[in-house]
């Protein structure tokens, strides 16, 4: 039975709870369905999908550090046509809800083409426009740090997108609030804050960068303060919904993110550490709500801003 005290809204979309596994940490759902019924979650964002198949970056792609990990997968995926024909067809057999489509590209034309292809897929509820992947050499990165380019992208997508558009922004800009307000004014329906934080790791034995790509994106509990700050500042500046993402490892982290202003919360690295992470957080959430005297999860959205 769905507990209404856990329900949240992303625009007109009602989620049974605010838990959303983040793109790149949950595949296309099949892997985690082997561990538990993923229909228990609010939704999930499937793996970043490009127009054509993409191999990704050279190995090694992942390294651990204290309180987190750094990755440079490089958006490896089979391309949107394969995703529609194989992955989404398979997903519909065991998943009864709608998902978030993470869309990645290096040109406006490719973004538009992918969105058009996904428009007919009823299982997709919203588009998470990934303009902020730190693990690609060129292209998409300009959209998350140049307000004019971001505005052009959104205004090109809005006329063709038949589903809401949420823009996933990067913390690497000097003024993330400017990017958030630019996205809202251009017509974005929501925001996802934040993507990974650029970083690197060096192998002391070889004296060389550990990752094949040399640099990558840091995630895990170490970046939670950065994500919280971004959500908090942007919540003050925009009226569109925010999905918080970055360093959420347990139910108290989730509550903290919502208090900063997130309407729903994506969980990333925790899924790579423990495939049951999201289920455990969901199961513990009612206990945490009771501990902090929270009767309805929606009541805490943005309460950190109360004067």
What report would you give on this structure?
- The protein has ten helices and 16 strands.
- With 307 residues, it is of the alpha/beta class.
- An eight-stranded parallel β-sheet has the order 3-16-15-10-9-8-7-4. A four-stranded antiparallel β-sheet has the order 5-6-14-11, with no helix packed on it.
- β1 (8-10) and β2 form a beta hairpin.
- The protein has helices at residues 30-33, 80-91, 108-118, 142-145, 147-157, 176-186, 224-237, 251-260, 269-273, 277-291, and strands spanning 8-10, 13-15, 19-21, 45-49, 62-65, 68-71, 99-104, 124-130, 165-169, 190-193, 197-200, 202-203, 208-209, 215-219, 242-245, 264-267.
Strands across the major sheet, in which order?
3-16-15-10-9-8-7-4
Largest sheet: 8 strands, parallel
Question: How much of the sequence is in beta strands?
Answer: 15-25%
Radius of gyration, in angstroms, nearest whole number: 18 Å
- Distance linking N and C termini: 36 Å
Q: What is the element string, with H for helices and E for strands?
A: EEEHEEEHEHEHHEHEEEEEHEHEHH
Uncertain stretches of 5 or more adjacent residues: none
What's the β-strand tally? Answer: 16
- How much is the average pLDDT? 94
Structural class: alpha/beta
Shape: globular
Helicity range of the residues? 25-40%
Counted by DSSP, the helix tally is 10
């Amino acid at each position: 039975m769905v507990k209404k005290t856990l329900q949240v809204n992303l625009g007109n979309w009602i989620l049974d709870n605010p838990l959303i596994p983040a793109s790149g940490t949950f595949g296309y759902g099949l892997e985690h369905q082997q561990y538990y019924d993923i229909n228990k979650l609010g939704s999930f964002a499937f793996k970043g999908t490009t127009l054509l198949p993409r191999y990704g970056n050279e190995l090694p792609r992942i390294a651990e550090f204290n309180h987190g990990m750094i990755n440079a997968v490089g958006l490896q995926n089979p391309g949107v046509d394969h995703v529609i024909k194989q992955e989404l067809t398979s997903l519909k057999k065991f998943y009864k809800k709608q998902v978030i489509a993470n869309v990645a590209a290096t040109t406006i034309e490719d973004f538009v083409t992918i969105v058009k292809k996904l428009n007919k897929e009823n299982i997709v509820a919203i588009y998470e426009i990934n303009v902020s992947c730190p693990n690609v050499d060129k292209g998409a990165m300009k959209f998350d740090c140049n307000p004019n380019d971001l505005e052009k992208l959104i205004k090109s997508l809005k006329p063709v997108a038949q589903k809401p558009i949420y823009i996933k922004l990067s913390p690497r800009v000097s003024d993330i609030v400017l990017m958030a307000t630019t996205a809202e004014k251009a017509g974005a329906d929501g925001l996802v804050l934040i993507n990974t934080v650029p970083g690197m790791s060096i192998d002391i034995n070889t004296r060389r960068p550990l990752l094949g790509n040399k640099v990558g994106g840091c995630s895990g509990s170490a970046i939670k303060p950065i994500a919280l700050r971004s959500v908090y500042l942007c919540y003050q500046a925009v009226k569109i919904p925010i999905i918080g993402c970055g360093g959420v490892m347990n139910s108290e982290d989730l509550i903290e993110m919502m208090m900063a202003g997130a309407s729903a919360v994506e969980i990333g690295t925790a899924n790579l550490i423990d495939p049951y992470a999201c289920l455990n957080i969901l199961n513990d959430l009612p206990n945490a709500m009771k501990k902090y005297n929270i009767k309805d999860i929606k009541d805490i959205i943005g309460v950190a801003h109360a004067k």
